[in-house]
Amino acid sequence: MKLKDKTAIVTGAARGIGKEIALALANEGANIAICDIDKAALEQVKSEIEALGRKCLIAVVDVGKSGSCEDMVNKSLDKFSRIDILINNAGITRDALLMRMKEEDWDAVLTVNLKGAFNFTKAVCRTMIKQRYGKIVNIASIIGIMGNAGQANYAASKAGLIGLTKSSAKELALRGINVNAVAPGFIQTLMTDKLTDEQRVAMLKLIPLGSLGKPKNVADLVLFLVSDASSYITGEVIKVDGGMVM
Ligand code: NAI
Fold it and tell me: Is the CB of 182 inside a 6 Å radius of any atom of ligand 1?
């Protein structure tokens, strides 16, 4: 087990990619603190993590609220004494063409997807600096690299997350902390279930490997980025998109 006795925080872990990452980390031996806004679903993930023999802390946290993020980090420290890994995964979409995009939808997406990652990175970094050890992985998107009509808010949030990744990687490198981003393409989750059949067919034509990705494809890359096998990698943005953007 590559992550025995390590502690990880995963945000937005009640379902989809976040849940898959939390279970993958637990499977490698890590104890896990997970947060989300969906308490019932968090309870279910907790029981799956405990069934693997790991400890699990759950917290209902809106990642856009800095105080709640700090509280969760403090509770995780009380329970586990250290925080080795942070996965900033919580994310939302509120799609509309720019001309029709409501200010509140711009603000909501930027707050969850970008400020949420800032809140948690800031809250864990003192502990990671003291430990002289930390792995932070931000779940960005290929949309943050290539843009997308109807997703100006989402693209801006994910491009911002890439900027946050590179800046925090530079600030924290000499403190023993690696910060990287993963940029998934189209992965089968509730987020992409919203696509129409027409959109899905159009999307598949753009993917050389010929299928949508699975949450496990993202979790496998995250496992590599939090392991010692990637210790000389920081500030990187790695796509997991079936070859869609090259
Ligand atoms: P999802 O919608 O299935 O899961 C997102 C989770 O975040 C949910 O459990 C939700 O309750 C939680 N969440 C939402 N707002 C929150 C808040 N304010 N505070 C805490 N938790 C909150 O989405 P999925 O597909 O699992 O996405 C996970 C991440 O991967 C997101 O950051 C998303 O942008 C990114 N991503 C997903 C892709 C896809 O094709 N599914 C592609 C590229 C990136």
Answer: no
